[in-house]
Amino acid sequence: MKNLPVKPTIKFSDLEKIDIRVETIEKVEDVEKSDKLVRLTVNFGDFTRKILVGMKKERENPKEIKGKQALFVVNLEPRKMMDEYSEGMIFDIGYANDLIPVLAMPEKPVPNGICAG
């Protein structure tokens, strides 16, 4: 594991701009022609989104996260990857520290779409 320095201080108002919500991962699908990406279909309660995640090389079986709740950033502008748009970002723990990432998830089930913070 590599320890990283603390990032520069930000204003509290900057943190309030990030919309982090809990959602259930309903589908995990392979993105053809990509050696890294999988496509998550995520249930936000009143809508669903497709979110592309580079976890093929991080997990032996990426489909093991199907049905789990996790934290997602939902107010990022869509990002095009492999001719598809990703409509958010999953929060995981460990990647920047050179660890196999794990999901950031609630300690017990909560309603889909509930806000963090």
Task: Give the SSE layout.
Elements: H1 12-15, E1 20-30, E2 37-43, E3 48-54, E4 69-73, E5 79-81, E6 84-86, E7 89-90, E8 92-93, E9 102-103
Antiparallel strand pairs: 1-2, 1-4, 2-3, 4-7, 5-6, 8-9
What would you say this structure looks like, in words?
The strands form 3 sheets. This protein has a 5-stranded antiparallel β-sheet with strand order 3-2-1-4-7, with no helix packed on it. Strands 5-6 form a two-stranded antiparallel ribbon. The longest helix is centred in the N-terminal third of the chain and has 4 residues, at about 10-15. The chain is built from 1 helix and 9 strands. Strand 5 (about 80) and strand 6 (about 85) form a beta hairpin. It has one helix spanning about 10-15; strands spanning about 20-30, 35-45, 50-55, 70-75, 80, 85, 90, 90-95, 100-105. By secondary structure, it is mainly β.
Defining traits:
two-stranded antiparallel ribbon, about 5% helix, 9 strands, OB fold (Dihydrolipoamide Acetyltransferase, E2P), about 120 residues, five-stranded antiparallel beta sheet, 1 helix, mainly beta
Summarize the structure.
With 117 residues, this protein is mainly beta. Helices cover 3% and strands 36% of the residues.
Annotated CATH homologous superfamily: Nucleic acid-binding proteins
Oligomer: single chain
User: How many discrete domains?
Assistant: 1
Q: What radius of gyration results from the CA coordinates?
A: 15 Å
- Stretches where pLDDT is under 50 for at least 5 consecutive residues are none
If strands are numbered along the chain, what order do they take across the biggest sheet? 3-2-1-4-7
**Main pleated sheet:** 5 strands, antiparallel
CATH class: Mainly Beta
Number of strands: 9
CATH architecture: Beta Barrel
User: How far apart are the first and last residues' alpha carbons, in Å?
Assistant: 28 Å
Please provide the ordered H/E string of secondary-structure elements.
Answer: HEEEEEEEEE
Mean pLDDT: 94
Q: Kindly report the CATH topology.
A: OB fold (Dihydrolipoamide Acetyltransferase, E2P)
Question: Percent of residues in beta strands?
Answer: 35-45%
Which structural class matches the secondary elements? mainly beta
Shape: globular
- Number of helical segments with 4 or more residues: 1
What proportion of the residues is helical, as a percent range?
Answer: under 10%
